[in-house]
Amino acid sequence: MEIKPEKNGEIVVLKCKGSLDAESVASFKKSTQKMVDEGSRYFVIDATALNFVDSMGLGAIISLMRRVQADRGEIKLASLSPDIRMIFELTRLHRVFDICATVSDACKKFSI
Amino acid sequence: MQKVQHIVPIWLEMDAHPRHVPWLRSFVQTYFKGGGVDISSRDCMKAQLALVEAFDNVVEHAYPKSRKKPVLVGLYLKGKTLHMEVLDQGRGPPQKKHKLPSVMSDHGRGLFLIYRLSSRVESKRENGWHRLHMRIRLGK
User: On chain A, which terminus has fewer CB atoms closer than 10 Å, C or N?
Assistant: First the structure.
């Protein structure tokens, strides 16, 4: 999996490409932890090029959410394909995350 | 998808290492393509996810201290039902652990997904192996 962070003011857009699964979850956690430690609190996960996520990947996103919420930050998801959205719906996480149609929509919704 | 399909069973043996996850996903896709079965991306995703979750469970719970122990994975299609079996030498998942955890929990969704994606799941131990047998109804 490739994670390409892009700064948009205080917001970090994480462009995720490939699969967020048992194999890649450690690198996702490591790189996002570093960004949180450096002070980032507002994240958009851009899932345009994300083609798979398993329960371990979901756990990593929840873990990131808990960390940023502890610092009064926010996390939003954007551009989920119908198949990826299905996984969030099956696990009812679509009720927990703010899922936006586009990255641009997500960036506009932060209460910064 | 065509009305009735049968593809011969294929069994794989691998070690319990998460590096196999991407390969397992592409194997599911290749299995259908190789058998000439045209399935929807949704069905393919369901099959891939259920199989990956079963494999993840082996890696995390059956063999938490070793990546070298064996895992057997079998796939076969009978009619419109995809059968997927995952065998390991662990004790198998605890009963009643397939409920959805609290929404903010960062683990515990694997078995829930397996049961949610499958029309039937059997979990049993025989001859020193734990066998998880998932059936996924395609085209539903």
Answer: C
What ipTM, to 2 d.p.? Answer: 0.91
Q: Which of B22, B59, B110 sits opposite A55 (nearest CB)?
A: B110
d(CA A48, CA A64): 19
Q: Looking at the domain assignment, is residue A111 inside a domain?
A: no
Residue B59 placed within a domain: yes
* A90 touching chain B per CB within 8 A: yes
For residue B106, give the nearest of A52, A62, A83 by CB distance.
A62
Spatial neighbors of A73 by CB under 8 A, at least 6 apart, are A40, A41, A42, A43
What confidence tens digit (pLDDT) does each residue in B40-52 have? 999 999 999 999 9
Residue B1, domain member (yes or no)? no
B112 touches chain A (CB under 8 A): yes
**Chain B residues within 8 A of A23 when measuring between CB atoms:** 18-19, 21-22
CATH code of B11's domain: 3.30.565.10
